Amino acid sequence: PTAAPLDDMQSAEEKMSKWLKVAVFAALLMGAGYYFGRTCGQIGQAYELILAPSGELLTLLLWFLLALGAVLVSAGLIAALLRLEQPEEAVRFLQRLWQEMGLEEPGVQFGRLLIQLNLWPQAEEVLREVAGKHTSPRTLSEWALALTMLQRYEEACQSLENAVDVEPTFDRAWRGLAHCYDRLGRFEEGLKAADRALALDDRHYRNWQAKGDVLLSLGRYQQAMEAARQGINLIDWQDEEARPVLYELLRQEFQALLGMGRVEEALEHLEESRHRFPTEERFPHSEVSLLTHLGRYEDALQVLDEARRAGIPDRSNLAPLRYE
Questions:
Q1: Rounded to whole angstroms, how far apart are CA atoms 43 and 148?
Q2: CB of 160 closer than 8 Å to CB of 190
C-alpha cells in the first residue's frame, strides 16, 4: 500500500534535484559569462597597457585567465549535465542560455547538440547566427559542419575559406575544405587543402582521414592506404571519442585494398575489424555486401548470424542483406 506514495515522493525528489542542477549550472555559466565579459571590457578600456607593460597588465591578464577558466569549467559542467538529462530538456536548456546570454560557447554547444540529434536545418540556423555574432575561425567551421550535413557544400566551402582567410594556421578549417572540395569533385584542391592541414598538424588523425578520402576519390589507392594507416597509428583504440574516426580509417584501408584488386586481403581486413569491434555494423555490412557480390552466399549468411549473436539487432541495416 505504501509503495506508490514512496515512488511518487522519489519521483518528486528526482525532479526537484534535476531542476536544482539546471538552476545551479545556469547561474554558474551566466556568472562566469558576465565575469568574462567584464574582464574583456576592462582589457578593451586599458589597451594602452599593452604598449606600456607593468604590474597592472600582469594583474589584468591574470583576471582574464581566471575568467576564461570559469567559462570553460562552466561549459564542461553543461556537457556533464547533457549526459544526465533527456535530449529535449538539454535542447530547451541550451536554447534558453543562448537566447538570453548570446555567448559563443552556449550557442556552439546548442548547435552541436542539434547536429547530434540529426536536427540539421535547426543546427544550421543556430550556428549561422552564432557565426554572425561571434565571427571566428571556430564558429565559421561549426557553421560549415552543419552546412555539410545538409550537403550544401558550396556554402560550406565559402565559410571555411573565410575561416582560413582569418586564420591560415587553423588546420580544422583546412581539413573541412578538403572534405567539401572532395564532395564537389574538386579533388586536386581537396588534396592541397588536406596537405595544408597536415603541414600544420600531422599528429591529428582527422587530418589523415581527410587526405585518405581525397586520395580514394583520385584512385590513388596505395597512397590512400598509407594515409589511413598513418591515422590509425595515431589513435588509442580504447579512446571512445576517437572511435568513429578509427572506423572511418579502417573503412578507407578496406576500400584501398579493394581498389588495388586485393580482394582476399580486403576480406581478411574486414574480418579482423569485425571481430575487434563486434557491435559495429559497418564491418559486417561491407563484408556481407562483398561476399554477396562474389557469390559466396553461405559465407555471407554466416557473417550475418555471427553479427546477430554479437549483439547487432535484427532491425538494423544488415536486415535487408539477408534477403539478397
A1: 37
A2: no
